[in-house]
Amino acid sequence: MSRRRPTARRCLGPIVLLLALCFSPLTVHADEPLETLVQALAAKGFKAKTKAVEALAASGDAAAAPVLEALLAGKLHYVKKGRRVVRIEKRDGAKAMFDPLAGTDLGPAKRKTKKITINNKLRRTIRGALGALTLLSPSPTVRRDAARAVFRSPRADSLPLLEKALAKELDDAVAHEMRRAIAALRLTAGEDLDVRLAGAHALADFPDPQVRDLLARIANDAATPAALKAASEEGLAALNRRLELLSLIQNLFQGISLGSVLLLAAIGLAITFGVMGVINMAHGEMVMLGAYTTFVVQQLFREHLPAWDAYSLAVAIPAAFLVGGLFGIAIERGIIRWLYGRPLETLLATWGLSLILQQLVRTLFGPTNREVANPEWMSGALEITGGLAFTWNRIWIIVFALAVILALTALMRWTRFGLDMRAVTQNRRMAGAVGIRSGMVDALTFGLGSGIAGMAGVALSQIDNVSPNLGQGYIIDSFLVVVFGGVGNLWGTLVGALSLGIANKFLEPWAGAVLAKILILVAVILFIQKRPRGLFALKGRAVEN
Amino acid sequence: MVNWKRPLAATATAAIMALSGLALPPVANAAETIKVGVLHSLSGTMAISETTLKDVMLMLIEEQNKAGGLLGKKLEPVVVDPASNWPLFAEKARELISKEKVDVTFGCWTSVSRKSVLPVFEELNGLLFYPVQYEGEESSRNVFYTGAAPNQQAIPAVEYLMSEDGGAAKRWVLLGTDYVYPRTTNKILRAFLTSKGVAESDIMEEYTPFGHSDWQTIVASVKRFAAEGKKTAVVSTINGDANVPFYKELANQGIKAEDIPVVAFSVGEEELAGIDTAPLVGHLAAWNYFMSVETPENEGFIEKWQAFIKSDKRVTNDPMEAHVIGFKMWVQAVQQAGTTDIDAVRQAMYGQEVKNLTGGVAVMNTNHHLSKPVLIGEIQDDGQIETVWQTDGLVVGDAWSDFIPESAKLTANWTYPWVCGNCTKPKYLPIN
Questions:
Q1: What element of type H or E holds A486?
Q2: Which of A122, A221, A315, B143 is the most exposed place for a label (fewest CB within 10 A)?
Q3: Domain ends where: A134, A153, A185?
Q4: Strands (E), B63-195
Q5: Do A217 and B218 touch (CB under 8 A)?
Q6: SS3 at position A187
Q7: pLDDT (tens digit per residue) in A370-421
């Protein structure tokens, strides 16, 4: 569907005219009314659709923006009979049709409609076009996204628009994005060498991988003039130094983040194994139960309180603690208390229990993964500077892990229950002699460890799959952390988890994920040979027993 | 199902066996039914994918029985649970063939489970239909491969990404889980890319352990790798559900499909059903079947499946279609041979044609692989995959890749004069 000028049509005689008439619903001209341009989106083939999108962008009419947004969101359909383009929205569980431009209600979608499909290349064009149309939007976030979109898919005709938008811009962050887009546009589509050189120099102030990509593209291009090539390479060298430093910081953050995940998985075990000495192979399943609790809570929120959906995690945390804790107490009372002092039997019994719990969940919830959605405030990343961004879900998990370990330390040190717990683990008979019901304390301690594992499940449901096998992936790591950090020592667990996480993340880039894990395992084994009691060994009578 | 005249104890035993899922109780006289073995994990890690395939087989068998059975006999499914345990697969396969005396088996998902049962099927001369896309480099006399070989999935996907429509990628990241399927597929892909003039420095290959959930470093390094001024694409042979945290990390680090598209070979509708697909929109999948394809055959199949499983939320996927095609072909071959004898059925299989659910006709070739169309689709926010490109006609499944020098020489052809799965020259000399 090429653009045909009306004059050309007249010259080429009646056949062409006939052809042109046949195609006329699909041929597109920027100066035609918007309705015709929108109708052209129902064309067959991605090339024709791209043309239609470009014509809509070239119209410069902000009214086209909602149409493009609907197209991007997959809401634009055409009615099979007559190919009229409509927007389809869900209303009370049924589909309703709307006029894409005017937004007028066209009633329920009774006739057969077909979605207007787009592909990645077209999606990029649409984002670029949308960017150009929404640069002057009243919302700063929309303007920022618009500037980003224009940067990603630069179109030469956006430059005057951008300059106009920048002149009016009051928000610093948005202006920053706009300057980056302008520099990129000058570099790629500048009229003469001076403009392009200025663009290349300006870009060196924006250290992020996308700018690096753009400069490298210019530097690699054989058609680039020598002066511009030199300028790009100079910019690249400066960017590389900066990006290397940023990537080091990024790596450190990732290490802390992995450490915090290990910490969460291991804190519960630090109590059941570290403090009580029970080898609990079903620990991972407590984590898994916590994750499924999150799923159930989220599901309940969706059904009954959809408006509060984003806060379902706040309810899931205590719920998972209760579920994990109750299971823990039941396990302790039902199985483990008969096996104290017989580690081998405990190991086998809890391992069997872990298989039973997995199959139970598989039967109840089905073998397929369950979807736990990330709330809005846990998605995306916090951008520190260009090229350095920390993802929100990881930040929250670090905060949560630290909060849990602080709360637990406080509980152990300053509450009556903590005192009883320490007394029983240090000297059971003496504790009994002063009137502490040691059986009760055992049950509660085990319940506490399992409850914390349940809370870890809430966090893990945000970064991993909620499946019956969730716990298995963490059980080995948890034991590793507890043993490495020193059995019976919460601070040891903290230091152990963080150092293993950071070491892993610094090994990964050059050794690969598989080898990094093996190296860590070997290092811990060697370390245990040297210091059998881990990083922070407990001293005193309790240990000698 | 249960013969009430039998003593109570025997009935109880049968009931317990049925409940424990070890084996369905033998019904009536064995000679009156044709036994179909179903060898899919119903527990353990692979249950997530394989349980569905077991259900599809039960549906197909029930349907065939309603239509009058086969050769005047009823079909009887024999379901066993190898529990995602590879050695157990071999044991259960032996049980199916020697003890249950099944006439055919439909089963396995992972390559390692297939490799584990292969010697059993060859030793006892059984017949296995394997429904999952795999790494190729194999053609057994006793296995029919109804999933895609690398040239029916991986190679077309890469060709699409290289094309103008696919974004003209010049730089490649090969990401995979560390086991036989990704390693072999990436070996083939690397050879293919090199043959297309891609430099070694433009290929990055990374492997991760099973169930890897911390993708931060790898996604960050993909981001760095992509910032070298050339369009970059990721080819993912990441196994099953490790994909979910991977895609989440991509989205959180702000990588969109338009910037760095990821094409995955193990992600289908069933896997997507467990995740929020909004951040995945635009990433690609390559299969021979998508649920979204609008053909009368496919619409009928989806309707039947959702009625059988009693849920209109359940999705269909590529390995399910492979079982549909495989089962229909086997039924046709048995009818043609007039017997369920394995050797006669095998001969009747060659050239057998069955309509694809996505249009066109699948053909069984003499190398035990199918000719099927290849579809490339983009993931949508409703968890469906929309076709954006497809091959003009059928692609013949290639057992031995042309891009690995040592396997390019090999031929798989189970008819005269070759009669062999990995030969450089025919078994029989041509008669002049």
A1: none
A2: A221
A3: A134
A4: 74-80, 104-107, 128-130, 143-145, 171-177
A5: no
A6: helix
A7: 888 888 888 888 888 777 889 999 999 999 999 999 999 999 899 999 999 8
- Please give the sequence-ordered ranges of beta strands (E in DSSP) within A255-351, or none if there are none: none
Q: Flag if B213 and A219 touch (Cβ within 8 Å).
A: no
Taking alpha carbons only, the member of B39, B376, B44 closest to residue B240 is: B44
Domain presence at residue A517: yes
Contact A61, A68 (CB under 8 A): no
Of residues A465, A508, A517, nearest to B244 (C-beta): A465
pLDDT at B172: 96
Rounding to the nearest 10 degrees, give the CA dihedral for residues A222, A227, A232, A234: 130
**Nearest-CA distance from A111 to chain B in Å?**
16
Say if B167 is an interface residue toward chain A (CB within 8 Å): yes
Give the minimum alpha-carbon distance from A48 to chain B in angstroms, rounded to a whole number: 12
CA neighbor of B324 nearest in space, from B264, B372, B367: B372
Residue type, B109: W
Q: In the numeric block, which tokens belong to residue A7?
A: 């004059």
For residue A398, tell me if it sits in a domain. yes
B257 touches chain A (CB under 8 A): yes
Q: How many angstroms from the chain centroid is the CA of residue B257?
A: 26
What is the total count of domains within chain A? 2
Shared domain for A127 and A262, answered yes or no, is no
CA–CA min distance A55, chain B (Å): 19
Residue B233, SS3?
strand
Per DSSP, A463 falls in state T
Average pLDDT score over chain A: 85
pLDDT of A65 above 60: yes
Residue A308 neighbours by CB distance under 10 Å: 12
Residue A99, amino acid: D
In a domain, A278, yes or no: yes
Q: Which residues of A touch B163 (CB under 8 A)?
A: none
**Which chain B residue is nearest to residue A393, measuring alpha carbons?**
B252
How many CB pairs (< 8 A) connect A and B?
159
pLDDT of residue B260: 92
Orientation of helix A438-460 relative to helix A416-426, angle to 10°: 110
Does A27 score more than 70 pLDDT? no
Domain that holds residue A540: 247-544
* Complete edge-to-edge strand list for the sheet that includes strand A113-115: A105-108, A94-98, A85-91, A76-79, A113-115
Residues of A in contact with B220 (CB under 8 A): 247, 250-251, 254
**ipTM greater than 0.90, yes or no?**
no
- The H or E element spanning position A86 is strand A85-91
Nearest to B78 by CA among B2, B26, B12, B31: B26
Residue B86 buriedness (CB in 10 A; 0-12 / 13-18 / 19+) = middle
**Full DSSP string of A445-481:** HHHHHHHHHHHHHHHHTTTS-BSTTTTHHHHHHHHHH
pLDDT digits (tens, 9 = 90+) for A117-171: 888 889 988 988 888 888 888 888 889 888 888 888 877 778 888 888 888 888 8
Q: pLDDT tens-digit profile of B351-385?
A: 999 999 998 899 999 999 999 999 999 999 888 99
**What is the C-alpha radius of gyration for chain A, rounded to an integer number of angstroms?**
31
Q: What is the pLDDT of residue B183?
A: 92
CB neighbourhood size of B306 (10 A): 15
For the segment A212-245, what is each residue's pLDDT rounded down to a tens digit?
Answer: 888 888 888 888 888 888 888 888 888 888 888 9
Structural domain ending residue among the three candidates A134, A161, A192: A134
Q: Does residue A524 fall inside a structural domain?
A: yes
CB B375 within 8 A of CB B289: yes
d(CA A515, CA A504): 10
**Quick check: helix, strand or coil at residue A466?**
strand
User: How far off is chain B from A210, nearest CA to CA, in Å?
Assistant: 6
